[in-house]
Specification:
By secondary structure, the chain is an alpha+beta fold. Helices cover about 40% and strands about 15% of the residues. Helix 1 runs antiparallel to helix 2. It binds calcium ion. The site of calcium ion (CA) has 5 residues, from loops. InterPro entries: FIB_ANG-like, Fibrinogen-like_C, Fibrinogen_a/b/g_C_1, Fibrinogen_a/b/g_C_dom, Fibrinogen_a/b/g_coil_dom, Fibrinogen_CS. One of its GO terms (biological process) is fibrinolysis. This is Fibrinogen C-terminal domain-containing protein.
Protein backbone atom coordinates (compact mmCIF):
# COMPACT_ATOMS: atom_id res chain seq x y z
CA UNK A 1 0.00 0.00 0.00
CA UNK A 2 2.95 2.34 0.62
CA UNK A 3 3.92 2.22 -3.05
CA UNK A 4 0.36 2.98 -4.08
CA UNK A 5 0.26 6.06 -1.80
CA UNK A 6 3.55 7.18 -3.20
CA UNK A 7 2.27 6.78 -6.72
CA UNK A 8 -0.90 8.74 -5.94
CA UNK A 9 1.11 11.55 -4.40
CA UNK A 10 3.21 11.66 -7.55
CA UNK A 11 0.08 11.79 -9.69
CA UNK A 12 -1.29 14.74 -7.69
CA UNK A 13 1.98 16.59 -8.03
CA UNK A 14 2.02 15.95 -11.71
CA UNK A 15 -1.59 17.07 -12.14
CA UNK A 16 -0.79 20.30 -10.38
CA UNK A 17 2.17 20.79 -12.57
CA UNK A 18 0.16 19.85 -15.62
CA UNK A 19 -2.58 22.40 -14.84
CA UNK A 20 0.02 25.01 -14.26
CA UNK A 21 1.50 24.15 -17.54
CA UNK A 22 -1.78 24.60 -19.33
CA UNK A 23 -2.50 27.88 -17.76
CA UNK A 24 0.87 29.48 -17.76
CA UNK A 25 3.05 27.71 -20.16
CA UNK A 26 3.25 24.75 -22.44
CA UNK A 27 6.09 22.55 -23.50
CA UNK A 28 8.25 24.08 -26.12
CA UNK A 29 11.22 23.09 -28.08
CA UNK A 30 14.38 22.18 -26.38
CA UNK A 31 15.66 25.68 -27.01
CA UNK A 32 13.38 28.52 -26.15
CA UNK A 33 11.84 29.87 -29.35
CA UNK A 34 9.99 33.15 -29.27
CA UNK A 35 8.06 32.15 -32.36
CA UNK A 36 6.42 29.39 -30.62
CA UNK A 37 2.80 29.92 -29.72
CA UNK A 38 3.88 30.25 -26.09
CA UNK A 39 6.72 32.40 -27.17
CA UNK A 40 5.57 35.51 -25.35
CA UNK A 41 6.17 33.82 -22.10
CA UNK A 42 9.38 32.30 -23.08
CA UNK A 43 11.76 34.62 -21.40
CA UNK A 44 10.36 33.93 -17.98
CA UNK A 45 9.23 30.35 -18.34
CA UNK A 46 11.81 29.14 -20.64
CA UNK A 47 13.75 27.23 -18.02
CA UNK A 48 10.68 25.53 -16.79
CA UNK A 49 9.54 24.61 -20.28
CA UNK A 50 12.95 23.42 -21.05
CA UNK A 51 12.86 21.31 -17.94
CA UNK A 52 9.46 19.94 -18.76
CA UNK A 53 10.47 19.37 -22.35
CA UNK A 54 13.29 17.34 -21.23
CA UNK A 55 11.35 15.26 -18.73
CA UNK A 56 7.99 14.92 -20.47
CA UNK A 57 8.69 11.60 -22.20
CA UNK A 58 9.87 10.08 -18.93
CA UNK A 59 6.88 11.53 -17.15
CA UNK A 60 4.50 10.20 -19.74
CA UNK A 61 6.12 6.86 -19.50
CA UNK A 62 5.95 6.96 -15.76
CA UNK A 63 2.34 8.05 -15.91
CA UNK A 64 1.55 5.24 -18.29
CA UNK A 65 3.32 2.89 -15.94
CA UNK A 66 1.40 4.29 -13.05
CA UNK A 67 -1.84 3.99 -14.89
CA UNK A 68 -0.93 0.42 -15.55
CA UNK A 69 -0.01 -0.08 -11.94
CA UNK A 70 -3.27 1.50 -10.88
CA UNK A 71 -5.13 -0.70 -13.26
CA UNK A 72 -3.35 -3.70 -11.81
CA UNK A 73 -3.91 -2.52 -8.28
CA UNK A 74 -7.52 -1.92 -9.07
CA UNK A 75 -7.75 -5.40 -10.51
CA UNK A 76 -5.97 -6.83 -7.54
CA UNK A 77 -8.27 -4.93 -5.19
CA UNK A 78 -11.29 -6.22 -6.97
CA UNK A 79 -9.83 -9.71 -6.80
CA UNK A 80 -9.12 -9.24 -3.15
CA UNK A 81 -12.68 -8.01 -2.57
CA UNK A 82 -13.98 -10.97 -4.49
CA UNK A 83 -11.76 -13.17 -2.39
CA UNK A 84 -13.03 -11.50 0.79
CA UNK A 85 -16.61 -11.93 -0.35
CA UNK A 86 -15.84 -15.51 -1.24
CA UNK A 87 -14.19 -16.10 2.13
CA UNK A 88 -17.08 -14.46 3.95
CA UNK A 89 -19.50 -16.63 2.08
CA UNK A 90 -17.41 -19.65 2.84
CA UNK A 91 -17.26 -18.70 6.49
CA UNK A 92 -20.99 -18.17 6.64
CA UNK A 93 -21.48 -21.44 4.86
CA UNK A 94 -19.05 -23.18 7.13
CA UNK A 95 -20.70 -21.66 10.19
CA UNK A 96 -24.02 -22.76 8.92
CA UNK A 97 -22.77 -26.24 8.17
CA UNK A 98 -20.61 -26.83 11.23
CA UNK A 99 -23.13 -27.24 14.08
CA UNK A 100 -25.54 -29.16 11.96
CA UNK A 101 -23.16 -31.64 10.58
CA UNK A 102 -19.58 -31.72 11.79
CA UNK A 103 -20.13 -30.77 15.44
CA UNK A 104 -23.16 -32.95 15.56
CA UNK A 105 -21.36 -35.73 13.78
CA UNK A 106 -18.40 -35.59 16.12
CA UNK A 107 -20.62 -35.36 19.19
CA UNK A 108 -22.62 -38.30 17.91
CA UNK A 109 -19.42 -40.21 17.46
CA UNK A 110 -18.39 -39.39 21.03
CA UNK A 111 -21.77 -40.57 22.25
CA UNK A 112 -21.36 -43.75 20.27
CA UNK A 113 -17.92 -44.33 21.71
CA UNK A 114 -19.19 -43.80 25.25
CA UNK A 115 -22.12 -46.08 24.59
CA UNK A 116 -19.87 -48.76 23.22
CA UNK A 117 -17.59 -48.39 26.22
CA UNK A 118 -20.54 -48.75 28.56
CA UNK A 119 -21.88 -51.71 26.64
CA UNK A 120 -18.43 -53.33 26.72
CA UNK A 121 -18.25 -52.82 30.50
CA UNK A 122 -21.76 -54.20 30.96
CA UNK A 123 -20.94 -57.18 28.81
CA UNK A 124 -17.75 -57.80 30.75
CA UNK A 125 -19.79 -57.68 33.94
CA UNK A 126 -22.33 -60.06 32.44
CA UNK A 127 -19.59 -62.42 31.36
CA UNK A 128 -18.21 -62.32 34.89
CA UNK A 129 -21.66 -63.08 36.33
CA UNK A 130 -22.25 -65.87 33.87
CA UNK A 131 -18.88 -67.33 34.77
CA UNK A 132 -19.89 -67.23 38.46
CA UNK A 133 -23.21 -68.91 37.65
CA UNK A 134 -21.41 -71.46 35.57
CA UNK A 135 -19.02 -72.21 38.42
CA UNK A 136 -21.92 -72.43 40.89
CA UNK A 137 -23.80 -74.72 38.53
CA UNK A 138 -20.77 -76.92 38.06
CA UNK A 139 -20.50 -77.20 41.82
CA UNK A 140 -24.20 -77.95 42.08
CA UNK A 141 -23.94 -80.61 39.39
CA UNK A 142 -21.06 -82.16 41.29
CA UNK A 143 -23.12 -82.07 44.50
CA UNK A 144 -26.15 -83.53 42.73
CA UNK A 145 -24.03 -86.28 41.21
CA UNK A 146 -22.75 -87.06 44.69
CA UNK A 147 -26.33 -87.05 46.05
CA UNK A 148 -27.53 -89.18 43.17
CA UNK A 149 -24.71 -91.62 43.87
CA UNK A 150 -25.68 -91.70 47.57
CA UNK A 151 -29.37 -92.20 46.75
CA UNK A 152 -28.53 -94.88 44.28
CA UNK A 153 -26.54 -96.65 46.97
CA UNK A 154 -29.41 -96.23 49.48
CA UNK A 155 -31.98 -97.48 46.97
CA UNK A 156 -30.06 -100.70 46.61
CA UNK A 157 -30.47 -101.32 50.31
CA UNK A 158 -33.74 -102.90 51.39
CA UNK A 159 -36.31 -100.48 52.89
CA UNK A 160 -36.31 -100.38 56.67
CA UNK A 161 -39.70 -98.78 57.05
CA UNK A 162 -42.96 -98.76 55.13
CA UNK A 163 -46.12 -96.78 55.64
CA UNK A 164 -49.00 -99.11 55.48
CA UNK A 165 -52.27 -97.69 54.25
CA UNK A 166 -55.20 -99.95 54.99
CA UNK A 167 -57.30 -101.16 52.09
CA UNK A 168 -60.71 -100.61 53.67
CA UNK A 169 -62.43 -97.37 52.72
CA UNK A 170 -65.47 -95.65 54.22
CA UNK A 171 -67.15 -92.35 54.97
CA UNK A 172 -65.46 -92.18 58.39
CA UNK A 173 -63.49 -94.46 60.72
CA UNK A 174 -66.57 -96.01 62.27
CA UNK A 175 -67.76 -96.94 58.79
CA UNK A 176 -64.35 -98.50 58.18
CA UNK A 177 -64.53 -100.43 61.48
CA UNK A 178 -68.00 -101.61 60.51
CA UNK A 179 -66.64 -102.83 57.19
CA UNK A 180 -63.99 -104.89 58.89
CA UNK A 181 -61.18 -102.50 59.66
CA UNK A 182 -59.64 -104.10 62.72
CA UNK A 183 -56.46 -102.22 63.43
CA UNK A 184 -55.66 -98.59 64.11
CA UNK A 185 -53.82 -96.95 61.25
CA UNK A 186 -54.13 -94.89 58.11
CA UNK A 187 -57.27 -95.24 56.03
CA UNK A 188 -58.89 -93.37 53.19
CA UNK A 189 -62.26 -91.83 54.00
CA UNK A 190 -64.67 -90.08 51.68
CA UNK A 191 -67.38 -88.13 53.50
CA UNK A 192 -70.73 -87.74 51.71
CA UNK A 193 -70.03 -84.33 50.17
CA UNK A 194 -66.27 -84.69 49.71
CA UNK A 195 -64.98 -84.34 46.16
CA UNK A 196 -62.28 -86.91 46.83
CA UNK A 197 -61.13 -89.34 49.52
CA UNK A 198 -58.45 -88.27 51.98
CA UNK A 199 -56.21 -89.99 54.46
CA UNK A 200 -57.02 -90.07 58.19
CA UNK A 201 -55.71 -91.82 61.24
CA UNK A 202 -58.37 -94.22 62.56
CA UNK A 203 -58.20 -95.32 66.13
CA UNK A 204 -59.99 -98.65 66.21
CA UNK A 205 -60.39 -100.14 69.64
CA UNK A 206 -61.16 -103.59 70.95
CA UNK A 207 -64.91 -102.83 70.88
CA UNK A 208 -64.74 -102.23 67.12
CA UNK A 209 -65.24 -98.54 67.57
CA UNK A 210 -63.68 -96.39 64.91
CA UNK A 211 -62.55 -92.93 66.04
CA UNK A 212 -61.64 -90.47 63.33
CA UNK A 213 -58.76 -88.40 64.76
CA UNK A 214 -58.86 -84.66 64.05
CA UNK A 215 -55.92 -83.40 66.08
CA UNK A 216 -52.92 -84.82 67.88
CA UNK A 217 -50.29 -83.25 70.15
CA UNK A 218 -47.72 -85.43 71.85
CA UNK A 219 -44.19 -84.01 71.80
CA UNK A 220 -44.17 -80.48 70.37
CA UNK A 221 -42.54 -81.62 67.13
CA UNK A 222 -45.00 -79.68 64.95
CA UNK A 223 -45.42 -75.90 65.16
CA UNK A 224 -49.13 -75.05 65.42
CA UNK A 225 -48.55 -71.36 64.64
CA UNK A 226 -50.03 -71.62 61.16
CA UNK A 227 -52.16 -69.46 58.88
CA UNK A 228 -55.75 -69.80 57.66
CA UNK A 229 -54.98 -71.89 54.58
CA UNK A 230 -52.77 -74.25 56.55
CA UNK A 231 -55.48 -74.77 59.17
CA UNK A 232 -57.99 -75.21 56.36
CA UNK A 233 -55.95 -77.84 54.49
CA UNK A 234 -54.33 -79.44 57.52
CA UNK A 235 -50.68 -79.72 58.52
CA UNK A 236 -48.26 -81.95 60.41
CA UNK A 237 -47.85 -85.67 59.75
CA UNK A 238 -50.14 -88.66 59.80
CA UNK A 239 -48.43 -91.84 60.91
CA UNK A 240 -49.80 -95.41 61.01
CA UNK A 241 -48.72 -95.84 64.61
CA UNK A 242 -49.91 -92.54 66.10
CA UNK A 243 -46.40 -91.19 66.62
CA UNK A 244 -46.81 -87.81 64.98
CA UNK A 245 -48.58 -84.50 65.52
CA UNK A 246 -51.09 -82.99 63.10
CA UNK A 247 -54.20 -80.91 62.45
CA UNK A 248 -56.41 -82.79 60.01
CA UNK A 249 -57.74 -79.60 58.42
CA UNK A 250 -60.89 -77.52 58.89
CA UNK A 251 -62.34 -78.38 55.49
CA UNK A 252 -62.02 -82.14 56.16
CA UNK A 253 -63.36 -81.75 59.69
CA UNK A 254 -66.31 -79.80 58.28
CA UNK A 255 -67.06 -82.47 55.64
CA UNK A 256 -66.80 -85.28 58.18
CA UNK A 257 -68.91 -83.59 60.84
CA UNK A 258 -71.91 -82.61 58.69
CA UNK A 259 -72.24 -85.71 56.50
CA UNK A 260 -74.51 -87.94 58.53
CA UNK A 261 -77.96 -87.77 60.07
CA UNK A 262 -76.39 -89.51 63.07
CA UNK A 263 -74.53 -86.73 64.91
CA UNK A 264 -71.00 -87.01 66.14
CA UNK A 265 -69.49 -86.83 69.56
CA UNK A 266 -66.24 -84.94 69.82
CA UNK A 267 -63.96 -86.51 72.40
CA UNK A 268 -61.02 -84.56 73.77
CA UNK A 269 -58.40 -86.64 75.55
CA UNK A 270 -55.58 -85.03 77.46
CA UNK A 271 -52.45 -86.13 79.31
CA UNK A 272 -50.55 -83.88 81.72
CA UNK A 273 -46.84 -83.94 82.58
CA UNK A 274 -47.49 -86.18 85.57
CA UNK A 275 -49.07 -88.79 83.30
CA UNK A 276 -52.67 -88.16 84.40
CA UNK A 277 -55.30 -88.66 81.71
CA UNK A 278 -58.66 -86.95 81.43
CA UNK A 279 -61.28 -86.47 78.74
CA UNK A 280 -64.29 -84.35 77.79
CA UNK A 281 -67.07 -85.26 75.32
CA UNK A 282 -69.33 -82.91 73.35
CA UNK A 283 -72.51 -84.06 71.63
CA UNK A 284 -73.59 -83.05 68.14
CA UNK A 285 -70.22 -81.64 67.25
CA UNK A 286 -70.20 -79.77 63.93
CA UNK A 287 -67.87 -77.48 62.07
CA UNK A 288 -69.57 -74.98 59.77
CA UNK A 289 -68.40 -74.37 56.19
CA UNK A 290 -65.62 -71.95 55.31
CA UNK A 291 -68.17 -69.24 54.39
CA UNK A 292 -69.13 -69.34 58.08
CA UNK A 293 -65.45 -69.30 59.07
CA UNK A 294 -65.56 -72.93 60.28
CA UNK A 295 -67.80 -72.09 63.20
CA UNK A 296 -67.79 -74.57 66.09
CA UNK A 297 -71.14 -75.80 67.39
CA UNK A 298 -72.19 -78.58 69.71
CA UNK A 299 -75.41 -79.33 71.55
CA UNK A 300 -74.14 -79.98 75.06
CA UNK A 301 -71.34 -81.28 77.22
CA UNK A 302 -71.74 -85.00 76.95
CA UNK A 303 -69.55 -85.90 79.91
CA UNK A 304 -66.01 -86.61 81.00
CA UNK A 305 -63.70 -86.00 83.92
CA UNK A 306 -61.79 -83.01 82.60
CA UNK A 307 -64.62 -80.52 83.06
CA UNK A 308 -66.43 -78.39 80.48
CA UNK A 309 -63.78 -75.87 79.48
CA UNK A 310 -65.55 -75.24 76.15
CA UNK A 311 -68.22 -73.49 78.19
CA UNK A 312 -65.73 -70.92 79.47
CA UNK A 313 -64.07 -70.48 82.82
CA UNK A 314 -64.46 -67.93 85.63
CA UNK A 315 -60.81 -67.03 86.04
CA UNK A 316 -61.73 -64.53 88.75
CA UNK A 317 -60.34 -61.42 87.09
CA UNK A 318 -63.75 -60.37 85.85
CA UNK A 319 -67.32 -61.72 86.33
CA UNK A 320 -67.77 -61.85 82.57
CA UNK A 321 -64.72 -64.11 82.13
CA UNK A 322 -66.76 -67.28 81.78
CA UNK A 323 -68.99 -65.79 79.10
CA UNK A 324 -66.07 -64.35 77.15
CA UNK A 325 -64.00 -67.54 77.27
CA UNK A 326 -66.67 -69.96 76.05
CA UNK A 327 -66.25 -71.56 72.63
CA UNK A 328 -69.58 -72.90 71.48
CA UNK A 329 -70.68 -70.89 68.43
CA UNK A 330 -67.29 -69.24 67.87
CA UNK A 331 -65.82 -68.90 64.39
CA UNK A 332 -62.27 -70.06 63.71
CA UNK A 333 -59.45 -67.51 63.90
CA UNK A 334 -55.84 -67.78 62.76
CA UNK A 335 -52.92 -65.35 63.12
CA UNK A 336 -53.87 -63.98 59.70
CA UNK A 337 -57.64 -63.97 60.28
CA UNK A 338 -59.39 -62.32 63.19
CA UNK A 339 -62.87 -63.75 63.76
CA UNK A 340 -62.81 -63.40 67.53
CA UNK A 341 -64.88 -61.29 69.98
CA UNK A 342 -61.88 -59.36 71.25
CA UNK A 343 -60.99 -55.80 70.18
CA UNK A 344 -57.49 -57.17 69.64
CA UNK A 345 -56.45 -60.33 67.81
CA UNK A 346 -56.34 -63.48 70.00
CA UNK A 347 -54.99 -65.89 67.38
CA UNK A 348 -52.26 -63.49 66.32
CA UNK A 349 -51.20 -62.76 69.92
CA UNK A 350 -51.24 -66.42 70.87
CA UNK A 351 -49.79 -67.86 67.68
CA UNK A 352 -52.41 -70.51 66.97
CA UNK A 353 -55.63 -71.30 65.13
CA UNK A 354 -58.69 -71.84 67.35
CA UNK A 355 -62.33 -70.95 67.94
CA UNK A 356 -61.28 -67.78 69.77
CA UNK A 357 -63.73 -65.76 71.85
CA UNK A 358 -62.03 -63.20 74.09
CA UNK A 359 -60.04 -65.38 74.10
CA UNK A 360 -60.36 -68.92 75.59
CA UNK A 361 -60.70 -71.37 78.47
CA UNK A 362 -59.79 -74.30 76.23
CA UNK A 363 -56.90 -73.95 73.80
CA UNK A 364 -55.56 -77.20 72.39
CA UNK A 365 -53.62 -75.75 69.45
CA UNK A 366 -51.51 -73.57 71.75
CA UNK A 367 -47.77 -73.38 72.07
CA UNK A 368 -46.02 -76.50 73.32
CA UNK A 369 -44.24 -75.85 76.64
CA UNK A 370 -41.91 -78.65 77.77
CA UNK A 371 -42.63 -79.51 81.42
CA UNK A 372 -46.01 -77.78 81.41
CA UNK A 373 -45.54 -74.73 83.62
CA UNK A 374 -44.86 -71.39 81.95
CA UNK A 375 -45.25 -67.69 82.81
CA UNK A 376 -46.08 -64.37 81.12
CA UNK A 377 -42.36 -63.86 80.57
CA UNK A 378 -42.23 -66.96 78.36
CA UNK A 379 -44.86 -65.49 76.02
CA UNK A 380 -44.50 -62.86 73.35
CA UNK A 381 -47.55 -60.78 74.29
CA UNK A 382 -47.97 -61.70 77.97
CA UNK A 383 -51.12 -63.76 77.36
CA UNK A 384 -51.60 -67.44 78.30
CA UNK A 385 -50.91 -69.22 75.02
CA UNK A 386 -50.10 -72.82 76.06
CA UNK A 387 -52.13 -75.99 75.55
CA UNK A 388 -54.87 -75.17 78.02
CA UNK A 389 -57.89 -76.87 79.57
CA UNK A 390 -58.81 -74.40 82.27
CA UNK A 391 -61.31 -76.65 84.12
CA UNK A 392 -58.50 -79.12 84.79
CA UNK A 393 -55.18 -77.21 84.98
CA UNK A 394 -54.32 -73.52 85.35
CA UNK A 395 -54.07 -71.56 82.12
CA UNK A 396 -50.35 -71.19 82.99
CA UNK A 397 -49.97 -74.96 82.66
CA UNK A 398 -49.53 -76.42 79.21
CA UNK A 399 -50.66 -79.99 78.68
CA UNK A 400 -48.35 -82.72 77.43
CA UNK A 401 -50.63 -84.59 75.06
CA UNK A 402 -54.01 -84.03 73.44
CA UNK A 403 -56.22 -85.91 71.00
CA UNK A 404 -59.40 -84.63 69.34
CA UNK A 405 -61.45 -87.36 67.70
CA UNK A 406 -65.02 -87.96 66.59
CA UNK A 407 -67.34 -90.93 66.55
CA UNK A 408 -71.08 -91.32 65.79
CA UNK A 409 -73.01 -90.59 68.95
CA UNK A 410 -74.60 -94.04 69.05
CA UNK A 411 -71.19 -95.58 69.80
CA UNK A 412 -70.78 -93.83 73.16
CA UNK A 413 -73.04 -93.23 76.14
CA UNK A 414 -73.44 -90.17 78.28
CA UNK A 415 -70.57 -89.71 80.67
CA UNK A 416 -68.17 -91.50 78.37
CA UNK A 417 -69.22 -95.01 79.24
CA UNK A 418 -68.41 -97.04 76.19
CA UNK A 419 -71.33 -98.60 74.41
CA UNK A 420 -69.89 -101.89 73.36
CA UNK A 421 -73.05 -103.11 71.71
CA UNK A 422 -72.49 -103.86 68.08
CA UNK A 423 -76.20 -103.42 67.47
CA UNK A 424 -75.75 -99.70 67.95
CA UNK A 425 -73.09 -99.49 65.36
CA UNK A 426 -73.72 -100.47 61.82
CA UNK A 427 -74.52 -97.13 60.22
CA1 LIG B 1 -60.57 -59.24 67.27
Amino acid sequence: MGSVKHALASILLLSALSSAMRGDFSPTQEICNPNDKFGTYCPTTCGVADYLQRYTPDMDQQLDQMEQDLEEISNLTRGAQDKVVFLKDSEAHALKQAPDTYIKKSSNMLDDIMRFEKSILAQEDQIYQLQSILQANEKRITDLKQMSFELDRLCKEPCKETVEIQMVNGKDCQDIANKGGKVSGLYYVKPARAAEAFLVYCEIDSQERGWTVLQRRRDGSVDFNKNWVQYKEGFGYLSPDDRTEFWLGNEKIHLLSVQSSVPYVLRIEMVDWEGNKKFADYANFKLGPEVDEYRLTYAYYFGGDAGDAFDGYAFGDDPSDKFYTSHNGMQFSTPDKDNDKFQEHCAQQEGSGWWMNRCHAAHLNGKYYQGGKYTEKDTEYGYDNGIIWATWHSRWYSLKETTMKIIPINRVTVGGQESGSKNFGDI
